[in-house]
Amino acid sequence: MLRAIACLSLLAALALPLQAAEILPHGAKASAPKSNGGKGLVEPKLTVPRGGDVTRVALTFDACMGKTDLRILDTLISENIPATLFVTARWLKHNPQALARITARPDLFELENHGENHIPAVDRPVTIYGIPAAGSPEAVAKEVQNGAAAIRAATGLESHWFRGATARYSPSSIAAIRAMGFEIGGYSVNGDGGSLLGAREAEKHIASAKDGDVVIAHINQPTHAAGDGVVKGILKLKARGVHFVRLQDAPPSPPGN
What we know:
By secondary structure, this protein is an alpha/beta fold. The protein has helices at residues 2-6, 11-14, 70-78, 89-94, 96-103, 137-155, 171-179, 199-207, 226-239; strands spanning 22-23, 45-46, 56-63, 83-87, 109-113, 127-128, 131-132, 161-162, 183-184, 189-190, 214-218, 243-245.
């Protein structure tokens, strides 16, 4: 259970409001994110430009640690659905077979940075959903840079986006991560509530995605019911004619969109 809780945001599961400002991809201007309650933390929202005549949705999956949910990976491959995968160094170390399948399909998958050890990228001592944060600027830098180095060592690829554990940050850590050359991997639809939602709930969350949404879910919990719902929700989106994009393929949005 602790591992599941550690695996990203529980906003949907806990029915907490999302308080964040939109962050536009690839250098487009964005307003400053709002602080989340009295703790001074933010959970950035991310969208991609709307598709006009088509509904455009970006599927993003966190591979925090542990194993690989082949229900999701197999569906993405068999249905030729592009996705962005945020992977940790810990997950890379223990999933070489899944990684080989992912890197064999560069037309489908974009690999991005989820950190070295799945530690919240907050530069002061705080606990988030029971998980101790990095706690200092130096520890945040280590989490980010070593996560990128692990992707580089395993694949030869450079990562350009970073999403920290729990997807919550201090404003100063956001600034530092951007100074390292990374965009912040926010989202606008919480697809599986940290992989803790039931299958039916996860299906509804995923299927609710609208034009421009960035969906977050998990691809490292093969025993959780949420995975079945994630697959069904994705297939519902495809049946609606949704055009799936990766973050690296989404063009910049005009400021203010």
